[in-house]
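Worked example

This section walks through a single chain of length 189. The input is the sequence exactly as stored; nothing has been trimmed or padded.
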Amino acid sequence: MKKSCDWPADDPLLIEYHDTEWGVPLHDDRRLFEFLILDAFQAGLSWTIILKKRENFRQAFADFDYVKVAKFNRRDTNRLLKDAGIIRNRLKVEAAVKNARAYLEVIEKFGGFDKYIWQFVGGRPIINNWKTLKEIPARSAESDAMSKDLKARGFGFVGSTICYAFMQAAGLVNDHLVRCFRYTEVSAE
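Given that input, the structure is written out below as tokens.
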């Protein structure tokens, strides 16, 4: 039997996410936007809730097309707040639209969100060597810097803890435990 990180436990949805997505270095602006939005909505909630609603989020947010989301207006916000398929938190919904607009500005300035966001880790994933879940931090110097810079650029719901979760999801850091079969696989990508 393959050894894995402990956090997916026996949840099939978390296992699938862990085994196929979590920690894989992402360089696609649309997927990066998806993780940025989902991690913001996850604040204060479990990742399982977000994964269960992920398809609903995709439908509600135009398949995470940041150009389309940037054009959302008050009517769209009200529609989203009535959508039981997503997290109906006004501040998070409004931040998602605001973030899409800021995202476009970053793309314009840096030639891609990918180019911008990866600068916080020097263009390469940080490979950590954690043996237990207790060792994994909730934030880092890199996530602190990312959070500060994103906020300065007009992003919302991008505190350091959210940024660190985003970094884990998008592979800017490899926080698979060293005994996990994905640790070496993700490090090689």
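What to look for: The domain at 12-188 is CATH 1.10.340.30 (Endonuclease III; domain 1).
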